[in-house]
Amino acid sequence: MSQPLRLCLVFHNHQPVGNFDGVIEQAYQDSYKPFLDVFALYPSLKIGLHTSGCLMDWLVVHHPEYVERLARLAAAGRIEIIGGSYQEAILPMLPRRDRVGQIKHYSQWLESRFGVKVRGMWVPERVWEQSLVADIATAGIQYTILDDFHFKNTGLLDSHLHGYQVTEDEGQIIAVFPGSEKLRYTIPFAEPRDTIDYLGQIAHDHPGAVVVFGDDGEKFGTWPDTKKHVYEDGWLRRFFDALVANQNWIKVTTLGETIDNVPPVGKIFLPDSSYREMTEWALPADQIVEYERVKHELEHDHRWPIIHRFVRGGFWRNFKVKYPESDEMYTRMLMVSNRLHSAQEAGQDRELLEAARAELYRGQCNCSYWHGAFGGIYLPHLRNAVYNHLIAAENLLDKAAERGDEWIETNVADFNLDGRHEVFLANDRLATLISPHRGGQMYELDVRSICHNLLATLTRRPEAYHRKVLAGAQDGGQNVASIHDRVVFKQPGLERRVQYDTYQRKSLLDHFFDQDARLDNVITGAAPERGDFLIGVYDARTRRNPDRHQVQMVRSGNAWGVPLKITKGVTLEAGNNTLEIAYLIEGLPPGRMFHFGVEFNFAGLPAGADDRFFHDGHHNRLGQLGRQLDVTELRSLGLTDEWLGIDVGLESSLPTNFWTYPIETVSQSEGGFELVHQSVVVIPHWHIQGDSAGRWSVTLQLSVDTSLAESRMEKATIAVMR
Q: Which of 125, 147, 398, 444 is catalytic?
């Protein structure tokens, strides 16, 4: 053919911040290394490769030989190195200064390491808003790749999508390539011949066309069953053989070479979108069900091909509504970013601020902020990693501000951007965020010494895929399917473990139970709530002494229709690792008994190991942290995680009954449906009566001891110094 078809293959390799070393190593052995082994055998082929900065950082430490190999292939012109957001952050989620900073920092790193000019970038999860154009151009990027879905949402047809277009914002332009959804599903799941035939039809109808494939490198070995399919059964060799055999009309090239040799086909402005599946996942669960029902009804209608291009789902930012825990991470990230910006403006220590910026960028990694076919926000270790880096950034900012060894502060503002004020109470050891208008709950508790948020919890809520779980569907796994089509159960009986919460699983949650309420009913949600304090609005005020601050919250409500008033105070002292939590209940009728409890949730303390256990005030072990406990007349209960090096204690001024049980979710990941431990519930509860004035009170000491973790840090520091 006189005008060959240009095929640009762009592979995106990524592992999230906080993922386990063993998981990343397996992906390296199953995908990244064997892919290059096969690719090296085809010197006439060229590809584009984006490796996220978080994965690249890991590779530099664990497999520097792979990084050197990439450098040689880049120098030889075989691989175009594609840049992007350094820590794979969703760009619309970031302040503009961080968008530009993430992209620039990674381009600089890649150019220094590989000696090549970075001209193109990978847009994380292809989450696009038109205002990104100016920021991407400001960061020095000339072109990127999105999905053809973005282009079709403007009304373009397939016949319009065989070249790149330019787009503009604030007078700056970049080029955008449409990645083929068709190829995302045929590569590597269909036989190579199917892809060649598809390209042949395009070449026949559109001489000189440009066709782009852009998708995850993990599809080539890491996704379930693909290692055997791609390598052992020889799919990748057969695919590359087919490309070489058809080089007389298929020119396998790069995005950069295409930009340099082919003019744009036009100008376009793209709507806010992502790839098709992402827009579906962003919908509320009930709307996903409705979307799938309507789609199923219409997809066999002869008009569906015409209608389909006008259909799209939700908006990525609404993951922060669908999952309030995502919004909590997001708004916490903004707090850190804003503080870093202010520190820069004040001219604080540049070296410390750059270290804080690196931690902030890691805390912006996208994977735990949403959920689709992968575990995402349902994976506790990913949420923990986000908070770990954000708290580490805060610690560095404290050091840059020269705050000293012991200090305390209280601030009141709309920290979570919901139109109401929250309270930030912090000292040199702990930091907590309290929401008076949501039951006076404590929704974050940072342990600064180990950079751990004990309230990185997750509430159990309906998911569209729970229909499959509740139906007990099974899949034989005989065929290699796209990850979006698999139905695999990683544990038996998951349909019996699906349960939903009616409130967020946080702490300082105030319950009134029936007198005869039992633990099993509380666990299943069958114990009715008899008061209106759980999610009711509390009035708040703060008290500040030089070394001691208090948040006091008051609500007049009722339990069993009886008017009651609850006052609860949270007190913290400088240099102290204990929160004092005091409750006063007023208006209790003479002679009447009430059953009152305060719920705490503790995250990042997983079950299933003997070094993670409950204990009483005498350090007698009471079982692993996943155990259901129903104990009476204790003054204290502790939770120890020796691996993390932390002991969390609750000590009461009165003899106390304690209920404990785990919160577990049934969620979807690339491997199938699985049960995931999210938090440990601890509920101290009392059968109470008022005194002669109708009053009852209790004081709880919530202490956090990290001496074990800190001693390990000291030993590690000494070992490094030696």
A: 125
